[in-house]
Amino acid sequence: MDHPKGLAGIVVDDTHISSTKNEKLTYAGYLVQEMVQRHATFEEVVFLLWNQRLPNKRELKAFRKDLVSKMVLPAETVRLLLYIAREPQHPMSILRTTTSLLGTTNDVDHDEPPKILAKMLTAIAAIIRLRDDEPFLEADPKLGVADNFLFMMTGKRPDAELSYIFNTVMILHADHEFNASTFTARVVASTMSDYYSCITAAVCALKGPLHGGANERVFDMLTEIIDHDEDPVEFVEQQVAVGRKIMGFGHRIYKHGDPRAAILKGFAEELSKKTGNEKYYDIQLKLADYMLQRDGLHPNVDYYTALIYHCLGLEKETFTLVFAACRTAGWLAHVMEQRGEKTLIRPNSEYVGPTDRNYASDTCMKKVVH
C-alpha cells in the first residue's frame, strides 16, 4: 500500500489550540495577523494557548507578574551551565541537557507550566550570555516577558519599536499545530510522562535542520554568498546541481506563502537598515524572487527570522535556542491537552519486508562433529 510520507495530510487528533486550515494560522480561533496588528503581547498569547480564551486586564497583569517572578534558575542548573555552556557542543545539545536537569531539581513534581516556561526562557538567555562570556542577568519586574527575555539575552532594554518587533517574533513562533517537535512532545505526554520529559523530547526534535535548525542553515547560505561575492541566482543553480536543498523556502502546509514570513519580511528590512545589514536583506530579496520564479516556492518563517536574529546581535548557533524559547509556550499547551486525553499515541505500520522465511534453513543449523 502507498502511505503518505511523514504523515503528510493525516489527521491524527483534534486540538483546540491552533490551526493552519486554509493556509491561515489561528490561535484558538483568532487570526494571528490580527493579533499582531493589534499589538498583542506574548503573555496574552500564552494565556490564550493555555486557556483557549483571552485574559481580561486583571488576569493579564497577574499572569505577566507571575511569569516574570518565576524567571529564576535553580542553583544546580546555574552550576551546570557554568560548566557546559562554553563547551564546543551545539547550543541545542546544551539546552537538551539543561532541560533534562531542570526536571530533577527543586521539587519539580509540583512545577506547573508557568514556572516551566519561565525557567526555559531564563535558561536559554543564560546559555547565550555565557557563550558570549557575559554574566547572568536577572529579570526586571518592570518589563514584560518578551522584553525581559530579550534584555536577559542581549543586556539591552528594548525601546517601544523593538519591543513590538520581538513580541511579534515570539508570538509567530509560539505554536504551529502538530509540527514535528510539538507532535514529539504529545507522543511523550500520551504516556503520562512528566512535563520536563515532554519538553526535553521536543527540544531534541527542534534541533534538526529540517525543523528549527533551518534558520541557522539560512544564515549560513547568506553568509556564503556574501563571503564569496556570489551571484544569488548562480548560487542557487550551483547548489541544486549538486543536490543540495535551498533552505528557507517552501512549506508542507503553506503552498501560497507562509503568513508568518510575510510579517517578518518587513521587520527584516527595518532592522537590516538600522543595523547596517542591508546586504543580507538585498540578497534575500533576490533569492526570494528567483526561487518563486524558478520553482514556485515562497519563503517560510525561517527565512527572515535568520536575519532578524542576526540584527539583534545573536550568533547563528543560538538562533534555534530562541525558536525553542518561543515554542515552549505551544509545547506546554499541547502537553496539557494531550495529558487530558489520557490516550496513548501508538500508530500502526505496514510491514513491507520479506515473509515466510525459515530460521533453521537460513542459519544452516547443523551439529558440529568433533
TrEMBL record:
<dbReference type="Pfam" id="PF00285">
    <property type="entry name" value="Citrate_synt"/>
</dbReference>
<dbReference type="GO" id="GO:0005975">
    <property type="term" value="P:carbohydrate metabolic process"/>
</dbReference>
<dbReference type="InterPro" id="IPR016143">
    <property type="entry name" value="Citrate_synth-like_sm_a-sub"/>
</dbReference>
<dbReference type="InterPro" id="IPR036969">
    <property type="entry name" value="Citrate_synthase_sf"/>
</dbReference>
<dbReference type="InterPro" id="IPR019810">
    <property type="entry name" value="Citrate_synthase_AS"/>
</dbReference>
<feature type="active site">
    <location>
        <position position="302"/>
    </location>
</feature>
<dbReference type="InterPro" id="IPR002020">
    <property type="entry name" value="Citrate_synthase"/>
</dbReference>
<comment type="pathway">
    <text>Carbohydrate metabolism; tricarboxylic acid cycle.</text>
</comment>
<dbReference type="GO" id="GO:0005829">
    <property type="term" value="C:cytosol"/>
</dbReference>
<dbReference type="InterPro" id="IPR016142">
    <property type="entry name" value="Citrate_synth-like_lrg_a-sub"/>
</dbReference>
<protein>
    <recommendedName>
        <fullName>Citrate synthase</fullName>
    </recommendedName>
</protein>
<keyword id="KW-0808">Transferase</keyword>
<comment type="similarity">
    <text>Belongs to the citrate synthase family.</text>
</comment>
<dbReference type="GO" id="GO:0036440">
    <property type="term" value="F:citrate synthase activity"/>
</dbReference>
<dbReference type="InterPro" id="IPR024176">
    <property type="entry name" value="Citrate_synthase_bac-typ"/>
</dbReference>
<feature type="active site">
    <location>
        <position position="251"/>
    </location>
</feature>
<dbReference type="GO" id="GO:0006099">
    <property type="term" value="P:tricarboxylic acid cycle"/>
</dbReference>
